[in-house]
Amino acid sequence: MGEIRERVGEADRLRPIARRLREHVIRMITAAGSGHPGGSLSATEIVTALFFHTLRRRPGDPTWADRDRFVISKGHGVPIVYAALAELGEIPVAELASLRKLGSRLQGHPDRVLLPWVEAATGSLGQGLSIALGMALASRLDGGRWRVFCLLGDGETQAGQVWEAAMAAGKYRPENLVVIVDYNKVQLDGAVAEIMDPEPLAAKWRSFNWNVREVTDGNDVAQVLDALDETGRGGGPWIVIAHTVKGKGVSFMEGTSAWHGKAPTAAEAERALAEIARHG
Amino acid sequence: MAEATRVAFGRALARIGDDPRIVVLDADLASSTNTKAFADRHPERFFQLGIAEGNMVGVAAGLALAGKVPFVASFACFLVGRFEQIRVSVAYNRANVKLVGTHAGVGIGEDGYSQMGLEDVALMRSLPNMVVVQPADGRETEAAVEWAARHDGPVYLRLTRQKVCDVCVPDQRFEFGRAVVLREGRDLTIAASGGVVAHALGAAAGLAGEGVEASVVNVHTLKPIDAETLARLGARTGGILTVEDHGIVGGLGSAVVEALAETGIPVRRHAVLDFGESGTGEALYAKHGLDAAGIAAVARGFVDDLRGATRARAL
């Protein structure tokens, strides 16, 4: 009972944070005039739970040796990470307006050299899980004090390299590796199921020797917390398949590929922000 | 002594492998790339990733970003064939990964084109943050491996399948970025890299008997290229002939032309002009003019042309 009450309290604490992250995402992509709102909004609860609950981190110190690592393999979703870093106070909120602009640390896709808070440059889809696996193996060699989390897009699981990495992780079985799939069902050209259906996704990962945890509503932060906490009790490598909604929180962006990679106009942003404020 | 540079690599790797930061990754070619000696000594730091080089490159990047010093070995063509992974996961990340491509060029012989690294230098030279090193013999390879382990940043090391004759003096230091003059002659400079350096020396010896004195310079570092030494030699001898077991586009020849474009020094490139094919390494070197006789023939023609041009200018 105590644990459930605690969980409810934690979810209540995180919900307003998730709302603010959504607002940052809309504002920064609108200011940039380009970007990918849909995949940032779908991953909002996942990133919120990770950065504000799960990840072992030391504020102000992006290079602390024993920090947990987070690799956003779906690099186009990086605005939600910038939003989290701003909300944590690691980068100034005002800097978010520099997204995608010349000279900015906030590149269109993450650049770890410019911004040490991101662990790896990604954006060429399919590569992040291999990097995360390498980090997890390094951690294990050094005593396994820190874990590695990797956020995959659903469309990204169409890439062969993901399965090369899945097979390798199935062989080496790093306990400290946790993958989360942002299963928002929509990719740039349309529905994931039509373009190249990854189903049966859970069965595929199980057959590659992974521990699979499905989250029926990956936009319910309480459910995400449950799953992430479970991955901390051993049994890795873990994959959390989080069923989410593309563009979650903004009605006209939800469930459509039209908002995969398009910035809202000022008027659209205003409507979006009003909706986020109302539902958040 | 003659030894394949991949063999020297394996020996050096096993020797420096006591450093706990060093990890080695292979893709089902450990007995060919010679990472096996390391694997036997340090099984906990050896990762056999199967026939999946793209993942191997990414895993190496992750290990490097967490402080390890990964050596990633495969045939040059298979390793560099994962260019997109090398481009983003390694180079853009400034990941401290040592990429080791063995089985360079047509010199591998019988296996044929699909196993020959003939475009790898072109691709690796094109990436910011990547340096490219191709040692000429076993001794230089061992020194280059030790240097690569110390160097902070991505490295591409290109090695031979076939045995190559010693060309370096026993106590020669490996100086990254500095081409090594092996022979001095006034009529021409032959700039060679990798397994063909020994053949270039053979060509120079043959030419000397005909009254043509060629300098031979071992360009073990292909990027950054030693423009200063090449310009000095080129100016002194009147021209540079580049020789390499690599495609004609993007390798040593291209690097030298790019470096000397504004100097007016004549450069002639001698390299592989087409896909490779099966045959003995010797037969292929003869066909492509990469043995001593072939290099000498090209050098002779170049010297004749240079002398003709000098005469024409005098008239």
Would you mind describing this structure in some detail?
- The complex is a heterodimer of chains A (280) and B (315).
- With 280 residues, chain A is of the alpha/beta class.
- The mean pLDDT of chain A is 96.
- Chain A has a five-stranded parallel β-sheet with strand order 1-2-3-7-6, with helices on both faces. Chain A has a two-stranded antiparallel ribbon with strand order 4-5.
- In chain A, helix 1 crosses helix 9.
- The longest helix of chain A is centred in the N-terminal third of the chain and has 31 residues.
- In chain A, helix 6 links the parallel strand 2 and strand 3.
- Helices cover 44% and strands 11% of the residues of chain A.
- Chain A is globular.
- Chain A has one domain: 3-Layer(aba) Sandwich (Rossmann fold).
- Chain B is an alpha/beta fold and 315 residues long.
- Chain B folds into two domains: 164 residues, 3-Layer(aba) Sandwich (Rossmann fold); 135 residues, Rossmann fold.
- Chain B has 13 helices and 14 strands.
- In chain B, the strands form three sheets. Chain B has a seven-stranded mixed β-sheet with strand order 3-2-4-5-7-6-12, with helices on both faces. In chain B, strands 9-11-10-13-14 form a five-stranded mixed β-sheet, with helices on both faces. A two-stranded antiparallel ribbon of chain B has the order 1-8.
- In chain B, strand 13, helix 11 and strand 14 form a beta-alpha-beta unit.
- The longest helix of chain B is centred in the last third of the chain and has 23 residues.
- Chain B is elongated.
- Chain B starts with a strand and ends with a helix.
- At the A-B interface, helix 5 and helix 6 of A face helix 4 and helix 6 of B.
